[in-house]
Amino acid sequence: MSRRNIITLVVMALLAVLPPVFYLTGNAFYLDLATRLTILAIAAVSLNLILGYGGLISFGHAAYLGIGAYAVGIPAHHWLYGGLESLGLATTSGYVQIPLAIGVAALFALVTGAICLRTKGVYFIMITMAFAQMMYYAIVSIEEYGGDDGLVIDSRSELPFIDLDDPLQLFGLAYVSLVVAMLIVRMIVNSRFGMVLRGAKGNNERVVMLGFNTYLFRLTAYVIAGAMAGYAGALLGNFTTFISPEMMDWGRSGELMFMVILGGTATLVGPVIGATLFIVLEEVLSSLTVYWHLPFGLLLLAVVLFGKGGIMGMLRADKEDSE
Amino acid sequence: MDFALLVIQTLNGLQLGLLLFLVASGLTLVFGILDFVNLAHASLYLIGAFICATLTFALGNFLIAVVVALPLTGLIGWAVERFVARPLYERDHLDHVLATFGLILVFETLAHLIWGPEGIAVPLPEFLQGQIVLSETLIIPSYRFLIIGAGLAAAGGLFWMVNFTRLGMLIRAGASNRTMVSALGINIEMLFGLVFAIGATLAGLAGMLVAPITEANIGMGNSIIITAFVVIIVGGIGSMKGAFVAALLIGLIDTLGRSFLDDIFKIFMSPSAAENSAPAISAMLIYIIMAVVLALKPQGLFPPKVR
């Protein structure tokens, strides 16, 4: 078993065991923290698929979290206050909300990705950012869903067998979802599809010369990543029960990127470690000072200027272990 | 749609366009020549506004404050180049993005720490507070004309500098082939620092000009940087002409869209549908335009010839 697999298993085992233990010993707060980091880790894992393995620097990934959360919030809003019954969108049923979250996120990824992926390099970074900001402003301008002030989700998604009002069950769902997301990413990366994706990251021209339409491969990966982040957004909406355009702000996208880079790109567990460190740092620093963004920003600068490869890069002894 | 409102909004659009150009020109200059992605560019817009606000109170005059604040902002820009950008030139764009994202957090929190969470209103001198009455319904604050004038002057000065001075020649040469320029004995590091400082000064000027209207506040950088990105994407990254044309285009479309889109929609929609959809569409308008431009010309309207 390679060193990397051991780290992955240890991290995932700790994440499975520690939060429920905290909860059962009366520290419910830590379970909340763990649920949030697990959900964000799903988004980070999905971002890693395109950023780490695909080399596509998307700076708009928070938009999908927002889309997923609003796909839960908007039907719940209509369920309570009326409207949209004819479309079947006035409901708290998870059977409607979660496919809606995944579907709309995938659609947004398809439409914007089709445009973004025509460009490359710095254009791609800025365009993904601009499209995410477009969603942000669109939601801000719709007063029915609270605009700037956000939207309270009065009732969580109803799912069979699971009661999301129970924090332990919500964490369980998030954890299982994270594991499934990681398995999906692993499957994709190791498949022929993933080989093309990673090949295009290394040398796009060469892969194109081999006869692959890398544009379509990238677009497919982009849509998959968007759909996964949309699902994470649906969980996030259910977790916070309050959603606002703020969660799509480009600062949030930057944080997701930071998680992936901090943990180590193109590694399975890197984004999970990154998300964990991010949440812990945020928690510790913000409890010390309201100006916690200052040490946080300096840390980010230090990581970029002096560190390479993230935490997984530092933990990795044998270079051959990398893909 | 009445005529007076159209004139006022067109002037507002022009003003926004020129401010956008001041921010975007620095971005495009830095990217075109240094190949460096600076997300923190708008932080200099923010810092410029705050420094100018403080100096306005300290020196008692807005215009003197601007004159003193400009070189200070340039100096901060130079420091950013020296300590953050320079070590990263050889790295990929992802590292640029992350480092300057960290820098934004640092700048914004420092501004919060020094100047507090509230915005600072910047008082104008007496003679700029007047209004110009063109007709009964057409009254325009004279300060708006100062912004438009200053914006045009800065744009003109920049064009003159880039096209007709020795420094501009070096900058253009550095943009096409930096190794060659440095082989010819030009101190490329100093040139890069200077370019960064010029970009910072322009962004700072935009922040200073806008401060008397909106107050100097922490969120102002965030609100303009994405629009400035849209401008340079539409114009073609690295192109000064593209930045100018796109900035005016985006400024006008954004301003006019917000005020007249519902009227336009009412022509072919029911009034209530127009009322509901217009705000969302007008908020998305500039991004839609960006998408259309990119679909037709992925390199923007004026793609730089040499890259």
Automatic annotation (TrEMBL), chain A:
The record, for InterPro entries, names: ABC_transp_permease, LivM-like
Where does the signal sequence lie? none
Recorded hits in Pfam families, A to Z, give:
BPD_transp_2 (PF02653)
The question of whether Transmembrane helix is a record keyword is answered with yes
User: Where is the protein found, in the record's own terms?
Assistant: Cell membrane
Q: List the keywords (alphabetical).
A: Cell membrane, Membrane, Transmembrane, Transmembrane helix
- Supply the CDD domains for this chain: TM_PBP1_LivM_like
Q: Which residues cross the membrane?
A: 7-25, 37-56, 63-82, 94-115, 122-139, 168-189, 215-236, 256-281, 288-307
Q: Name one GO molecular function term.
A: branched-chain amino acid transmembrane transporter activity
Naming one, the record's GO cellular component terms include: plasma membrane
Asked if the keyword Membrane belongs to this entry, the reply reads yes
How does the record classify its membrane topology? Multi-pass membrane protein
In terms of PANTHER family, this protein maps to:
ABC TRANSPORTER ATP-BINDING PROTEIN (PTHR30482:SF17), HIGH-AFFINITY BRANCHED-CHAIN AMINO ACID TRANSPORT SYSTEM PERMEASE (PTHR30482)
Instruction: Tell me the protein's name.
Output: ABC transporter permease protein
